[in-house]
């Protein structure tokens, strides 16, 4: 993990390993009850005979799981739990962008499973294209919307059911009554974990004009204190030099809008925690998901204008709102759509395996984690008996 993404041991142990093991324990404790046939209400047939109905769960068959680079252990093995619970076999293709971790994934799978049950195929675009030509029974893909379109197109050619876990620009709204210390700490954790390469990271902030300057100052104090004045090399690595250059391009386009950070090292792939202010939607940093440690800040006075702006764009994977007014927060959520949402926190919903996780619209389709993973990888079969 450190070689590929610069992740610290504590972050790796929690965000990559512990989350999978906790979900595994939860699944082992509950799978027997989840898999039981569900007796459904009955009624009489027109002839007077009794109709008895139930729903059973069957495996789809051979599943194809495509893992991403940003959380290569968690986001590969968590869907594998679902495939196994549903009784499926699986072929896994780890991300070629994290080759060291991909090699470890292959070793773990080879040690744990016979190859006709679960196998790993290493490779890049060529190998993925070949695999997508096969008649799988289910496909589970985690990655970018652009590649998700390619996967969905291939699945459509053979009418293969699939789950797409994608991403998008997840907004965060900080209202004028928000607890700013709480907001700064929780947004910072969500934004700069894994060097900003998290699909549900706060992509940008809409901050009420009355608290914007104070919020920025508290962000600066928090970052200086947390990283001893220098976050370069302490929040992880960007996955590739090309992505470092892409991120640098956002800053070069409007250097005067960088109010904190902005340094990077192309050779080491380190990128500093960075804040941009006075951002508008026309800026380059707002044209697509950032997937890096840059936090753009936009200002608002009327929240309805913010909601109109959010709703006019593709549906995000997550939406976060910080406010001490529960009615205000609930109103924001009721007037917007996102894969999932949080009030006064970020990222934690991903680690709660009791909840379904997934996107909506261009941020994905299908839900998983815990029981929802079992259901995702299971065909629900209705059975009727006439007595």
UniProtKB/TrEMBL annotation:
Its Enzyme Commission number? 1.2.1.3
Q: Which Gene3D superfamilies match?
A: Aldehyde Dehydrogenase, Chain A, domain 1, Aldehyde Dehydrogenase, Chain A, domain 2
Name the catalytic site residues.
165
The cross-references to Pfam families, in alphabetical order and at most eight, read:
Aldedh
Keyword Oxidoreductase on entry: yes
User: Does Oxidoreductase count among this protein's keywords?
Assistant: yes
Stretches of the chain forming a coiled coil according to its record: none
Q: Which residues form the Aldehyde dehydrogenase domain?
A: 3-382
Keywords in alphabetical order: Oxidoreductase
Q: Name one GO molecular function term.
A: aldehyde dehydrogenase (NAD+) activity
InterPro entries for the chain = Ald_DH/histidinol_DH (IPR016161), Ald_DH_C (IPR016163), Ald_DH_CS_GLU (IPR029510), Ald_DH_N (IPR016162), Aldehyde_DH_dom (IPR015590), Aldehyde_DH_NAD(P) (IPR012394)
Family stated for the protein in its record = Belongs to the aldehyde dehydrogenase family.
Entry protein name: Aldehyde dehydrogenase (NAD+)
Whose protein is this, by species? Mucilaginibacter lappiensis
């Amino acid at each position: 993990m450190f070689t590929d993404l610069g992740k610290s041991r504590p972050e790796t142990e929690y965000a990559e390993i512990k989350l999978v093991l906790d979900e595994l324990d939860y699944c082992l404790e509950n799978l027997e009850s989840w898999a039981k046939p569900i007796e459904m209400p009955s009624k009489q047939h027109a002839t007077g005979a009794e109709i008895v109905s139930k729903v059973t769960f069957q495996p789809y068959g051979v599943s194809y799981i495509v893992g991403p680079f940003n959380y290569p252990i968690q986001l590969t093995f968590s869907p594998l739990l679902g495939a196994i619970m549903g009784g499926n076999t699986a072929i896994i293709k780890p991300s070629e962008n994290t080759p060291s971790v991909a090699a470890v994934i292959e070793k773990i799978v080879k040690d744990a499973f016979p190859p006709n049950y679960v196998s790993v195929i290493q490779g890049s675009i060529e190998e993925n294209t070949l695999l997508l030509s096969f008649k799988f029974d289910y496909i589970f893909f985690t990655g970018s919307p652009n590649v998700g379109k390619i996967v969905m197109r291939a699945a459509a050619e053979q009418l293969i059911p699939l789950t797409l876990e994608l991403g998008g620009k997840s907004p965060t709204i900080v209202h004028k009554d928000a607890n700013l210390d709480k907001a700064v700490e929780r947004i910072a954790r969500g934004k700069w974990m894994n060097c900003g390469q998290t699909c549900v990271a706060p992509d940008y902030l809409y901050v009420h004009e009355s608290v914007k300057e104070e919020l920025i100052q508290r962000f600066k104090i928090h970052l200086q204190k947390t990283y001893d004045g220098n976050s370069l090399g302490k929040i992880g690595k960007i996955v590739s030099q090309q992505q470092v250059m892409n991120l640098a391009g956002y800053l070069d386009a409007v250097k005067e809008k960088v109010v904190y950070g902005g340094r990077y090292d192309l050779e080491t792939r380190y990128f500093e925690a960075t804040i941009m202010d006075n951002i508008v939607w026309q800026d380059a940093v707002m044209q697509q998901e950032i997937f890096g440690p840059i936090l753009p800040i936009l200002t608002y006075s009327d929240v309805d204008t913010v909601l109109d702006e959010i709703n006019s764009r593709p549906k995000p994977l997550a939406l976060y709102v910080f406010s001490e007014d529960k009615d205000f927060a609930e109103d924001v959520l009721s007037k917007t759509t996102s894969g999932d949402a949080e009030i006064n926190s970020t990222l934690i919903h991903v680690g709660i395996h009791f909840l379904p996780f997934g996107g909506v619209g261009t941020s994905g389709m299908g839900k998983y984690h815990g029981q929802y993973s079992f259901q995702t990888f299971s065909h629900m079969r209705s059975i009727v008996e006439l007595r």
